[in-house]
Amino acid sequence: MNRPDGAAPNAAPDPVTWVAPRAIEGDQVRLEPLGRRHAAGLAVVGVDPEIWTFMPCPPDIVAFIDRAALEQEEGQRVAFAIIDRHSGTAIGSTSFLDVQPLHRRVEIGWTWIGRAYWRTAINTETKLLLLTHAFDRMGAERVALKTDGRNVRSQAAIARLGAQREGVLRRHMRLPDGFIRDTVYYSILREEWPLVREGLRQRLGASG
Question: Are strands 164-174 and 180-189 parallel, antiparallel or unpaired?
């Protein structure tokens, strides 16, 4: 049986087209391929230092966007702007990282939104859109998520998605301030996706 991406079960998908940038529409948010046209909106919401407590704060939003574009050219990343459909404004960003078409795995990361949108349905729908794209359109076998070992809020949010905690990579990553963090890894596998999808849909229905 062929995969959702049209490839045979044991065939590696085309690395160029497997996770090609495209807009992904939801009820409350739209994910658009990240570009400089989003810089003004992201600069407004990105000034809050609390957003960057456990993430490397970019020197400026344009530099953040340009870095994402370079990493995309190198096949490392596909970045999106998170657009609030009610206002049409960019309120954050998220990315597919560690894109591995041969192994049919990808990571969701570099996700941040303006603090005014925390604890809303925005993050839940964003993750639902990305996971749906990964599993149902790309034919991914595994989607990973990781976070700083100190970031308890992020760990709780990932667990609420239905992702399974896999473990901790100790002293895994040196941050710009010199701190070497532990990294907590989570994942969702293809066979787990239907239950995760239903849980996310129920959460969105309850918050609507």
Answer: antiparallel
Rg over CA atoms, the chain: 17
Strands 142-148, 105-113: pairing is parallel
What would the pLDDT profile of 115-174 be if each residue is shown by its tens digit?
999 888 999 999 999 999 999 999 999 999 999 999 999 999 999 999 999 999 999 999
HEC states along the chain? CCCCCCCCCCCCCCCCCCCCCCCEECCCEEEEECCHHHHHHHHHHCCCHHHHCCCCCCCCHHHHHHHHHHHHHCCCEEEEEEEECCCCEEEEEEEEEEEECCCCEEEEEEEEECHHHCCCHHHHHHHHHHHHHHHHHCCCCEEEEEEECCCHHHHHHHHHHCCEEEEEEEEEEECCCCCEEEEEEEEEEHHHHHHHHHHHHHHHHHHC
- Tens digit of pLDDT for each residue in 65-82? 999 999 998 888 999 999
Under CATH, which architecture does the 24-207 domain have?
3-Layer(aba) Sandwich (3.40)
Task: State the sign of the Cα–Cα–Cα–Cα dihedral 162, 106, 104, 139.
Answer: positive
Burial class from Cβ neighbours inside 10 Å (0-12, 13-18, 19+) for residue 20 reads exposed
